[in-house]
From TrEMBL:
Its main location: cytoplasm. Residues 77-244 form the CP-type G domain. PANTHER family: SMALL RIBOSOMAL SUBUNIT BIOGENESIS GTPASE RSGA (PTHR32120), SMALL RIBOSOMAL SUBUNIT BIOGENESIS GTPASE RSGA 1, MITOCHONDRIAL-RELATED (PTHR32120:SF11). This is Small ribosomal subunit biogenesis GTPase RsgA. GTP binds at N127, K128, R129, D130, G184, P185, S186, G187, V188, G189, K190, S191, T192. Monomer. Associates with 30S ribosomal subunit, binds 16S rRNA. One of several proteins that assist in the late maturation steps of the functional core of the 30S ribosomal subunit. Helps release RbfA from mature subunits. May play a role in the assembly of ribosomal proteins into the subunit. Circularly permuted GTPase that catalyzes slow GTP hydrolysis, GTPase activity is stimulated by the 30S ribosomal subunit. Its cofactor is Zn(2+). GO terms for biological process: ribosomal small subunit biogenesis. Keywords: Cytoplasm, GTP-binding, Hydrolase, Metal-binding, Nucleotide-binding, Ribosome biogenesis, RNA-binding, rRNA-binding, Zinc. The gene is rsgA.
Length: 314
């Protein structure tokens, strides 16, 4: 390449903006006045993600990202052998589950670890309250999460009765003024939720497709939607659930991000206890029925510990 090296931030006409959608290496950047411009990264390694604040400048009819401003936090996605950043600067992660399809607990557990480790508050919502008895069974499966202090909301997104509206209002109150990433397995009602909370979502998505030149398949991309809450809140819709990247986490620190384990840390006989099979382990002693920790949480922990350990092996 013959292009001379570019300074990272010193482009004379650089302006500030926020990344509101991404498609491959291209992103859509929103200026403070709301105008959106398709931008590409300056270098091979730099990658801006949805939620990023950036400096960018115009080159022809496209923009170029000059610099990604310092991030408050990031979430990773597992992409074959690599962990890649896919969203930044979040306040909250909404894990949307439903009475049906039944959720897989390890997926929920992984999402909560990803959020807690990044310093982002998780929020769990269980949709399809009208589907019985599946809803009550699923609600009961979430008892350990309520007991460890996680917020768990019942939802009936596709209902018109008064309770359904009250539940939606309760959810809105948790989203107000915050930037929330919404994740959940297919079929739980994620599109229903986005369309309910963001009446202009479909129009936004079409405009984003046109701007990014991606055709009709942008629903498989991460997208930022403003909430009309008068408080600067936004939803980030992102596909997928299972592929949260956790391999940057050291297995020895894993228990810290599990609120049901955290109260027992430092109480084991060995200071470097991994809480798997050591004697005198305070966490194993706190497993039900002797204590409050649900056995499936401990099995989840052991499996994830071993996965993280194997991922570190040279
Ligand atoms: N019974 C019931 N069905 C609901 C409720 N909310 C959404 N649904 C239905 O669940 C189905 C899936 O909803 P979507 O919003 O398409 O789900 P999604 O999570 O976006 O699914 P994908 O597009 O596969 O990712 C639709 O048929 C909705 O009408 C609810 O509260 N109760
Ligand atoms: Zn221990």
């Amino acid at each position: 390449m013959t292009r001379p090296p570019q300074p990272a931030t010193a482009a004379p006409n650089a302006q500030e903006g926020r990344v509101v959608a991404s498609y491959g290496r291209h992103v859509l950047v929103e200026a403070p006045d709301g105008a959106r411009t398709r931008c590409h990264p300056r270098g091979k390694r730099q990658q801006a993600v949805v939620g990023d604040q950036v400096h960018w400048s115009i080159t022809g009819d496209e923009g170029v990202i000059e610099a990604v401003l310092p991030r408050r936090n990031v979430l990773f996605r597992q992409d074959e052998q690599r962990t890649k950043v896919f969203a930044a600067n979040l306040d909250q992660v909404l894990v949307l589950l439903a009475a049906e399809p039944a959720f897989a607990e390890p997926q929920l557990g992984r999402a909560l670890i990803a959020a807690r480790e990044a310093g982002i508050e998780p929020l769990i919502a269980l949709n399809k309250r009208d589907v019985q008895p599946a809803f009550d069974i699923a609600w009961e499966r979430l008892a350990p999460y309520r007991a460890m202090g996680e917020r768990v909301l019942p939802l009936h997104l596709h209902g018109s009765d008064g309770t359904a509206r009250a539940e939606c209002e309760a959810l809105r109150a948790h989203l107000r003024g915050r930037v929330t990433l919404v994740i959940g397995p297919s079929g739980v009602g994620k599109s229903t939720l986005v369309n309910l909370l963001v009446p202009h979502a479909q129009a936004d998505t079409q405009a984003i497709s046109r701007a990014l030149g991606t055709g009709r398949h942008t629903t498989t991309r991460t997208t930022w939607y403003w909430l009309d809450d008068g408080a600067g809140g936004a939803l980030i819709d992102s596909p997928g659930f299972h592929e949260f990247g956790l391999h940057h986490i050291a297995p020895q620190t894993l228990a810290r991000w599990m609120p049901d384990f955290a109260p027992y840390l430092g109480q084991c006989r060995f200071h470097n206890c991994t809480h798997r099979r050591e004697p005198g382990c305070a966490i194993q002693a706190a497993l039900a029925p002797h204590g409050p920790i649900a056995p499936q949480r401990w099995r989840f922990y052991v499996d994830l510990y071993e996965e993280l350990d194997a991922a570190r092996a040279p």
